[in-house]
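Structure in, sequence out. Go:
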């Protein structure tokens, strides 16, 4: 744990002491978003990066927490010698960014001080660029720094209604598919103990293979077990399974905050898709979430804006759509352009729509 010269706490995700302090800070937050939990950030960190977080304490118990992954640019084959000590940062998979907590009347002042201090830390540590996947609930996100780019709409199902009211909100195809799944004898169970982790993995891996997912998403059983142990079953996450007799045919790992459910990982067996188990899984999760006191079920978006995955999710609450945006910032423009030029000299020109361009 390091207090930087600018006044921010810097926590190293590879330090057990820092992780304990980080977890204690996270537990003091009212929302407890799972994407900010040190176990989420460290467990899912890619091999070519390492996890860290900065923390700022303002007046009247206000604070800002910002976890991220650091990439050392010396690991890039084309990195110039003079930039061997530089790095870049990216927020973890899902939703993130610097998150403010405290009295609303202090938010602007505390955010302004944080931005100034964080910029100084980035200069000290040789940060060239920063990429943030912003929280879908952005009232707590520190904004107005760098370029904010709308990416696509995300679906956030509003919870707490009766089953009849939810069914009325669904598009017709969802109501039909829920009925079909029930008529086929499918049942949904909520697995708070992780007793069917191996079944989850079988269904999940088969879905990732069928859809041609990136190798990053083929998380090992050890990684998922570590995530489960870190967040805590029934506290920070829970498994939901659709059973066809004694067999899991559709499944989802949900992340939990104080007020929201997040669809995280899941899949459906190809041989069972005709019975529409995923529609039943979402429906029963919506009912369970409302009974359990949650306000939102974040389904997210598609692989691309408006694709079939998005349309499937949208059908559960067509009028509850929130924009998902990213934010990108160049902290060292000279180094950034030098890296882009160095990459272009040894590889095909990078995609202009990818950030940072030297990693395209």
């Amino acid at each position: 744990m390091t207090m930087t010269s600018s006044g921010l706490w810097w926590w190293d995700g590879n330090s057990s002491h820092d992780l304990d302090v980080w977890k204690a800070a996270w537990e003091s937050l009212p929302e407890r978003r799972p994407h900010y939990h040190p176990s989420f950030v460290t467990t899912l960190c890619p091999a070519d990066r390492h996890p860290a977080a900065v923390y700022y304490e303002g007046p009247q118990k206000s604070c800002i927490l910002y976890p991220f992954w650091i990439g050392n640019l010396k690991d890039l084959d084309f990195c110039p010698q003079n930039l061997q000590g530089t790095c870049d940062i990216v927020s973890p998979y899902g939703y993130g960014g610097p998150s403010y907590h405290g009295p609303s009347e202090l938010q602007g002042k505390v955010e302004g001080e944080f931005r100034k201090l964080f910029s100084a830390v980035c200069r000290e540590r040789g940060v060239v660029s920063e990429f943030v996947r912003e929280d879908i609930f952005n009232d707590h996100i520190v904004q107005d720094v760098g370029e904010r780019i709308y990416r696509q709409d995300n679906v956030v199902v509003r919870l707490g209604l009766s089953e009849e009211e939810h069914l009325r909100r669904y598009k017709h195809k969802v109501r039909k598919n829920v009925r079909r799944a029930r008529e086929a004898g499918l049942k949904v169970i909520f697995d708070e103990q992780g007793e069917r982790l191996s079944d989850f993995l079988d269904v999940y891996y088969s879905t990732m293979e069928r859809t041609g997912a990136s190798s990053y998403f083929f998380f090992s059983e050890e990684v998922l077990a570590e995530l489960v142990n870190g967040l805590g079953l029934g506290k920070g996450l829970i498994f939901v399974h659709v059973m066809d007799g004694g067999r899991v045919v559709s499944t989802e790992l949900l992340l939990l905050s104080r007020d929201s459910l997040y669809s995280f990982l899941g899949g459906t067996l190809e041989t069972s898709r005709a019975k529409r188990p995923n529609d039943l899984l979402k429906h029963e999760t919506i009912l369970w979430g409302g009974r359990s006191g949650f306000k939102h079920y974040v389904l997210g978006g598609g692989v691309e804006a408006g694709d079939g995955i998005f349309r499937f999710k949208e059908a559960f609450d067509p009028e509850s759509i929130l924009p998902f945006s990213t934010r990108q910032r160049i902290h060292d423009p000279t180094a950034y352009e030098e890296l882009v030029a160095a990459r272009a000299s040894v590889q095909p020109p990078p995609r202009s729509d990818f950030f940072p361009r030297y990693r395209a």
